[in-house]
Design goal:
The chain has helices spanning about 10-15, 35-50, 65-70, 85-90, 105-120, 135-150, 175-185, 210-230, 245-255, 270, 365, and strands at about 30, 55, 80, 95-100, 125-130, 155-160, 190-195, 240, 260, 285-295, 300-305, 320, 330, 340, 355-360, 370-375, 385-390. The chain is an alpha/beta fold.
Length: about 400
């Protein structure tokens, strides 16, 4: 298998390191490293306090360097959604990877099995989710083929995914999960690792009470399913799930042993609309699209960041306001433009050349638009470029 081709760091990016934020050309994806590190420290502290593991979702940042920072801060590894994301992580030296998704194509499973052997050789561990007997059989076949080819004896950790309210993948809580556990245990190359119970719909329910109610149902589903599995003499050693919106509920449940939250690190504009649970750490925005005003009229200005610079599936970006005076609203200007209208007290339209910072509506698909993120320390006004962060798993969709 060939490693993914790497886009070279351009001379422009290489020379940016050490320079003022003003030198960053637009549009550009910028990480406020100070804010990111504070988010990381708050997450580590939260997990410690609640005595849960955290395996943050790397589908959000898609970057090996950030995955390593998370593991240095105490994460046990990372989650990914795609085989190709797992390959990017392993290729960069991240050896504890959980594919929280169903993989069924034989050619993909051959890659999964190869990864399982690769990480085992490095002292790591690969995990994957399943939700069908067919899927278990195909995974076992791929692992057996890889074992006979490599003469290795790697084992892949397998989580049984139960649908706890999202209506996406997963078997119904209860006997269907028990049947899958038995199926997994028939194969020596597979190890039953626990339950995957993630409710994506709960993450963006706006009030803490709504999120608590949704996750209470998930917890009941897990407890019920775990009881049935354990009644058959099989321990359920780990329940993994949770996103940034609901993680306080899973952490407090006493049932979930591992948190998969990903967005907490960058915090997009959509997540900022959730009413914060008092138990939730105060995560800050750390991901911005730097943009510049290219046209200015009496009532509006136009910037150089449109839909090709940020995803809009969760709404348009917010303009970061350094003070109430400079508040601006962002309106759809198409692929390459954003329209800005004053929202603050001053009613001042920004002048041509003015640099602005957008908070993307949704961080994951926004990151996926860029080969590199520019890491800044010392703040967005007076800071300096500290490092260039490669997005190795950009476009890693297979
Ligand atoms: C299976 C799974 N776990 C965890 C997450 C992380 O959620 P968030 O980025 O909202 O924290 C996601 C996100 O979609 C997910 O699909």
């Amino acid at each position: 298998m060939k490693p993914p081709t790497k886009t070279p760091v351009s001379d422009y990016l290489a020379h940016l390191v050490g320079q003022s934020v003003n030198a960053i050309d637009t549009p550009a994806l910028v990480v406020d490293l100070d804010a990111m590190k504070r988010n990381l420290a708050r997450m580590a502290e939260f997990a410690r306090k609640h005595d849960v593991r955290w395996r943050p979702h790397a589908k959000m940042h898609k970057s090996v360097a950030i995955a390593k920072l998370q593991m240095q801060a105490g994460a046990v590894g990372v989650c990914v959604q795609k085989t190709a994301e797992a390959e990017a992580m392993v290729g960069g030296g991240v050896y504890n990877v959980y594919i929280t998704n169903e993989v069924v194509a034989a050619w993909k499973l051959a890659r999964v099995a190869a990864l399982a052997h690769q990480v085992a050789a490095e002292g790591g561990q690969l995990a994957i989710a399943v939700d069908s007997v067919e899927g278990v059989g195909r995974l076992a076949q791929a692992m057996n083929d890889a074992r006979s080819q490599t003469k290795g004896a790697a084992v892949v950790d397998v989580f049984v995914e139960i649908d706890v309210g999202q209506g996406r993948c997963g078997v119904a809580p209860g006997q269907a999960a028990v049947a899958l556990v038995h199926e997994i245990r028939k194969h020596p190359a597979l190890r039953f690792a626990g339950l995957q119970a993630y409710n994506g719909k709960a993450q963006h329910l706006r009030s803490p009470q709504q999120r608590r109610e949704a996750i209470a149902i998930a917890v009941d589903d897990v407890v019920y399913t775990r009881k049935l599995i354990e009644a058959e003499g099989v321990p359920v050693v780990l329940v993994s799930g949770a996103g940034t919106g609901s993680m306080v509920c899973e952490a407090a449940s006493g049932v979930f042993g591992e948190l998969q939250a990903g967005s907490f690190l960058f915090m997009d504009a959509d997540y900022a609309q959730n009413e914060r649970d008092p138990a939730q750490p105060q995560f800050e925005h750390a991901l911005f699209v730097k943009t510049q005003v290219i046209s200015s009229r009496e009532d509006h200005a136009v910037c150089d960041a449109g839909h090709k610079s940020h995803s809009i599936d969760s709404g348009l970006p917010k303009v970061h306001a350094f003070d109430a005076e400079s508040e601006l609203d962002y309106f759809n200007g198409g692929d390459e433009h954003g329209i800005l209208r004053p929202a603050g007290a001053s009613r001042r339209v920004p002048a041509i050349g003015r640099m602005l910072w957008l908070i993307p509506g949704h961080c994951d698909p926004t990151v996926n638009l860029y080969d590199f993120m520019i890491g800044v320390s010392g703040g967005l006004r007076k800071g300096k470029v500290e490092r260039i962060i490669r997005v190795e798993a950009r476009g890693a969709l297979t």
